[in-house]
Amino acid sequence: MIICKIIGDVVSTVKNRRLNGKKILIAQPLDLNGEPDGKEILVIDTVDAGAGDRVLVMREGGSARIVLQDNEIPVQAVIVAVVDDIDIVKEK
Predict the structure, then answer these.
(1) pLDDT at 36
(2) Alpha-carbon distance 87 to 63, whole Å?
(3) How many CB atoms lie within 10 A of CB 54?
(4) Of 43, 35, 49, 53, the residue nearest 75 (C-alpha)
(5) What is the pLDDT of residue 47?
(6) Residues forming beta bridges with residue 39, ordered by sequence position
(7) What is the DSSP pairing of strand 54-58 with strand 23-29?
(8) Which CATH fold topology does 2-82 show?
(9) What is the pLDDT of residues 34-71, one digit of tens each?
(10) How far apart are CA 83 and CA 33, in angstroms?
(11) For residue 91, what pLDDT band results from cuts at 50, 70 and 90?
């Protein structure tokens, strides 16, 4: 899983039928300091996330399909949580 920030959404009127009714968002992966870390990805939203939210993304197709309860859906990444806070313990 990775932490991302939602930076936009995708609107598509013509798509694979298994994506009907699914909200597709644009997510920017973040490092543990909250800085951008890699290229943006498209994710299916299952938690009603919105622009600016930090989210936890399952970025493995098989696991994403389990979350969506659909073995045939063509996805690689799905949002599984909105992140409220991150606490990192620093060594002394």
Answers:
(1) 98
(2) 26
(3) 19
(4) 43
(5) 97
(6) none
(7) unpaired
(8) OB fold (Dihydrolipoamide Acetyltransferase, E2P) (2.40.50)
(9) 999 999 999 999 999 999 999 999 998 889 899 999 99
(10) 14
(11) confident
The structure tokens listed for 54 are: 């930090």
Structure tokens at 83: 């992140």
* Run of H or E residues at 65: helix 61-68
Tokens of 82: 């909105």
Helix H or strand E encompassing 83: none
Q: Which residue has the tokens 């806070």?
A: 85
Locate the DSSP E strands across the chain.
2-10, 23-29, 41-45, 54-58, 78-82
Nearest CA among 4, 1, 43, 39 for reference residue 22: 43
